[in-house]
Design goal:
The complex is a heterodimer of chains A (116) and B (111). Chain A has 116 residues and is mainly β. Chain A is built from no helices and eleven strands. The chains are: A mainly beta (116), B mainly beta (111). The interface between A and B is medium-sized, with 28 and 27 residues.
Chain lengths: 116, 111
């Protein structure tokens, strides 16, 4: 498909387990963003990639959260030792922008993460 | 003060009505303005993208930016039940890579 693809679409796991969330951006998009959306809340910025580099990790809530991007394409967001407050929808977006935010982002449908 | 303020609603209108959705912002450096539509259990979908001040029209949708008042609007004409969704505004500056989102306005169009 031509859009941003995220997997899994839903994930239920027990507290304390590690989870990996995957994002396939639109082909050719150099910028990739991860956001978290909680019920009734806005989008919380987590991390931004330009190519394989992450110049802005300022939004990662704790050191349990990490992300990587390989080949300038697929990105993985990893949450270690999950906590119940990590339950949310994790959204990925990509854009064709360079180093300035002048191109709009295109979003995937997210991964709905539930921590029991 | 939040960078972007958006009334969460909910907003309920009859089919065919004109809908006005609004956001205010505090950062005068914002130059790029976007509106997204988000259906339940889906990701945000880009509706409108504008640069600086002025109006942009696309079908039943019109985006308006007033930089002097730091105020942006999205108008939906002849609203349809299929327009029922949450609408998010977003904006960014000419430098850096941060996008700032409103919390979204929930809209229901009643047949």
């Amino acid at each position: 498909g031509a859009g941003v693809s995220q997997s899994p679409s839903n994930k239920v796991t027990e507290k304390g387990k590690d989870v990996e969330l995957r994002c396939d951006p639109i082909s050719g998009h150099t910028a990739l963003y991860w956001y978290r959306q909680s019920l009734g809340q806005g989008l919380e910025f987590l991390i931004y990639f330009q190519g394989n580099s992450a110049p802005d990790k300022s939004g990662l809530p704790s050191d349990r959260f990490s992300a990587e991007r390989t080949g300038g394409s697929v990105s993985t967001l990893t949450i270690q030792r999950t906590q119940q407050e990590d339950s949310a929808v994790y959204l990925c977006a990509s854009s064709s922008q360079g180093t300035t935010s002048n191109q709009p982002q295109h979003f995937g449908d997210g991964t709905r993460l539930s921590i029991l | 003060q939040k960078e972007v303020e958006q009334d969460p609603g909910p907003l309920s209108v009859p089919e065919g009505a004109i809908v006005s959705l609004n956001c205010t912002y505090s950062n005068s450096a914002f130059q790029y303005f976007m509106w997204y539509r988000q259906y339940s259990r889906k990701g945000p979908e880009l509706l409108m993208y504008t640069y600086s001040s002025g109006n942009k029209e696309d079908g039943r949708f019109t985006a308006q930016v007033d930089k002097s008042s730091k105020y942006i609007s999205l108008f939906i004409r002849d609203s349809q039940p299929s327009d029922s969704a949450t609408y998010l505004c977003a904006m960014s500056a000419n430098t850096g890579n941060q996008f700032y989102f409103g919390t979204g306005t929930s809209l229901t169009v009643i047949p």
